[in-house]
Specification:
heterodimer, A: mainly beta, 12 strands, about 0% helix, globular, B: mainly beta, seven-stranded mixed beta sheet, four-stranded antiparallel beta sheet
């Protein structure tokens, strides 16, 4: 079946450090891939997305490239800020009713 | 645009009572809304798909008689937790579909 696996957290970084959060997926066909961010006590916000292989999604300094050959969609940011502290969810969308499948989430904590 | 609200943002109720949570798309119409449940430090679990004017489609293992979903209009879906028990305490998040899923801010339910 379809599934998403993320690296376990929490991830703790110092401000201005480089961030990578790994995400791999299993899916039939060609799903769209997403990264969502959840700040404490809030709902989810779409961070970026990619709809086909080799697409790169980017937003607010975050990037992720849809790699079909490795079934991955790793999230990266060159220089994190304290305000980036949140939980990040990787997700895939498959066409059966437009349902999203989420990874388990990775908590990021950035220290000043 | 594409704002989704939830009401209430948090609620405390006594065991055995029922609680209604509203999900509204404020500036767009949504024929499809989704309801998720999130346990602390865990991912989102899809509970059901709510389609305007028809019965909701529940995911496997979700009790439809306990979690009543009504999608009465193109901008409103409601989730009623009937005869709530402490194990129903959770964070409930809805999303509404337009070109993609837009998430509400969530409702924290605590059953005492």
């Amino acid at each position: 079946g379809n599934s998403v696996t993320q690296m376990e957290g929490p991830v703790t970084l110092s401000e201005e450090a480089f961030l990578t959060i790994n995400c791999t997926y299993t899916a039939t066909g060609y799903p769209s891939l997403f990264w969502y961010v959840q700040y404490p006590g809030e709902g989810l916000q779409l961070l970026l997305k990619a709809t086909k292989a080799d697409d790169k999604g980017s937003n607010k300094g975050f990037e992720a490239t849809y790699r079909k050959e490795t079934t991955s969609f790793h999230l990266e940011k060159g220089s994190v800020q304290v305000s980036d502290s949140a939980v990040y969810f990787c997700a895939l969308l498959y066409n059966q009713g437009g349902k999203l499948i989420f990874g388990q989430g990775t908590e990021l904590s950035v220290k000043p | 645009g594409a704002v989704v609200s939830q009401h209430p943002s948090w609620v405390i109720c006594k065991s055995g009572t029922s609680v209604k949570i509203e999900c509204r798309s404020l500036d767009f119409q949504a024929t499809t809304m989704f309801w998720y449940r999130q346990f602390p430090k865990q991912s989102l679990m899809l509970m059901a798909t709510s389609n305007e004017g028809s019965k909701a489609t529940y995911e496997q293992g979700v009790e439809k008689d306990k979690f009543l979903i009504n999608h009465a209009s193109l901008t409103l879906s409601t989730l009623t937790v009937t005869s709530a028990h402490p194990e129903d305490s959770s964070f409930y998040i809805c999303s509404a579909c337009r070109d993609e899923q837009y998430f509400g801010p969530g409702t924290r339910l605590t059953v005492t």
